Amino acid sequence: MNEQYMRRALELAALGRGHVSPNPMVGCVIVHGDRIIGEGWHERYGQAHAERNAIRSLRPEDEPLLTDSTAYVTLEPCSHYGKQPPCADLLIEKKIGRVVCCNDDPNPLVGGRGFDKLRAAGIPVETGVLAEAGRRLNARFFTFMEKQRPYVILKWAETTDGYLAGPGGTPVQISGPLSQRLVHRWRTEEDAIMVGTNTAHTDNPRLNVRLVPGRNPIRIVIDRALRLDAGLHLFDGSQPTLRYNLIKTETVGQTTLVQLTADEPVLPQLLADLRQRSVQSVLVEGGTTLLNAFIDAGLWDEMRVFRSPMLLGAGIEAPTVRGTLYDRERVGDDELTTYRRLD
User: Fold this and answer.
1) Pick from 113, 140, 167: which residue ends a domain?
2) Which residues participate directly in catalysis (predicted)?
């Protein structure tokens, strides 16, 4: 029964995708006997955590049952004061009968202290239930904490004959309308979206969310010599934008110029700076030079590749796929294949 209720907690946790970063997604299910009496998830960054929302969802007549109930939580209850008080303290205060959890929290501010508090209060704790599923759900959070960098997703669309642009980099709409909508949904789910200099110049992308409701990500562009035209959509001031270069650091409106060191590799510096800004995930949308730079440096976690039935015959070749096949599905006329890096 543990796994059944934990799967439900994971489903609830996923409802927070795109809304809780840099916090992890967390779900909580409270069970008495074989009946769910409370459910909750972390809905918005800065707002109540999953355990508190689950307890708030209880009917008044069910509150006395907590002492004989189990809380199924997808991540170790927090033990420190942040924007919300500690959830471990709340479970102790409510005298919850038992706690079952997917994963220990890798955040050093928690790092087992939540479980220690619960056990010290006499509350039995079981961990590791659907642990791998919990890590997959919060891959961004675990990468951020354990690898000290954002989770990096490489995305591109290629033709059946392996091109992602026409000759000389001429822009070509390769993926279909359903794939485009899906990409806009992905943009709402990640903290930042990134392109290289050539893509910014040639495609003049907006890198915002227009086809679905949701938040706009932080825009990132590498512009080493600050040669990109100030009139590009990227610099229209409509959303936060980071412009990494080798010349200067300054902020004008929503655009921040960040100077990197010329004698060190760019991508590790960039990712380290993003981590300092609490950017937990980056969707890299090209072009080929930037995508291959991430691949060659081994600084990626996931590839999402659309393959359309289109044939170009010539043009800019798509990157070579790496990693382990994770998923394959049809999106309209396109095939979407997802690969994951296994360290």
Assistant:
1) 140
2) 51 (proton donor)
CA atoms of 263 and 298, how far apart (whole Å): 19
What pLDDT, on the 0 to 100 scale, is given for residue 169?
83
Residues 158 and 285 in one domain: yes
In the predicted structure, residue 69 carries a pLDDT above the cut 80: yes
Please check if 75 is assigned to a binding site: no
Put simply, whether the predicted model's pTM sits higher than 0.85 gets the answer: yes
Would you place residue 81 in the very low, low, confident or very high pLDDT band (cuts 50, 70, 90)?
low
DSSP characters for 306-322?
A: EE-S---SSSEEPPPP-
Contact 75/87 with Cβ under 8 angstroms? no
The response to whether 291 counts as a known ligand-binding position is yes
Asked whether the predicted pLDDT for residue 84 surpasses 80, the reply is: no
Peptide bond into 162 cis (omega under 30): no
Q: Based on the domain organization, do 156 and 124 belong to the same domain? A: no
Annotated binding residue 102: no
Cβ–Cβ under 8 Å, residues 341 and 313: no
pLDDT in tens, 203-213: 999 999 999 99
Q: Is 39 assigned a ligand-binding role in the annotation? A: no
Torsion of CA 260, 265, 270, 272, to 10 degrees: -110
Residue where one domain finishes, among candidates 140, 158, 179:
140
Buried/exposed code over 304-333 (b: 16+ C-beta within 10 A; e: otherwise): bbbbbebebeebbebbeeebeeeeeeebbe
What residues make up the domain containing 84? 2-140
Annotated catalytic residues are 51
Sign of CA dihedral 258, 260, 262, 265: negative
- The domain total for the chain is 2
